[in-house]
Amino acid sequence: MREDKKTIIVFSNDMDKVMAAFVIATGAAAMGDEVTMFFTFWGLNVLRDAKKKAQGKSFLEKMFGAMMPKGVEKLPLSKMNFLGIGPKLMKYMMRKKNVMMLPEMIKQAQELGIKMVACSMSMDVMGIKKEELIDGVEIGGVATYLGEASEAGVNLFI
Q1: Global pTM?
Q2: What residue range is the signal peptide (predicted)?
């Protein structure tokens, strides 16, 4: 086990929870720790690039994709979402308080060398293709995560 290694499972696509995951991840990386973020199930929506489309999806995969938020700008809040007004208010307050926005946090995470892994099994189940994801994301299964987690001193589930 290494005290300077951290892993975070990002299961949620709630904007506030995802922000917490990136604040912790970038904070640890800025302190010199090695960080791996493993995105699974709803957390995969964080990695979907709103500008990218995948070819060859089945009808059900297209329907599933249409029902989920595509990219960080579409993420709901876990509380007080109010049909999408809540996230807009949160973003307004973040800009007003000079808090880094989620797209900037993701860019910073990449610049700090944080490894972002998309769960291959969840991608299959949810019909998400690699070409839909933001650049720099690795694809891996549970063995990838468990290998990283077995070496880490801190493992979080968000």
Answers
A1: 0.93
A2: none
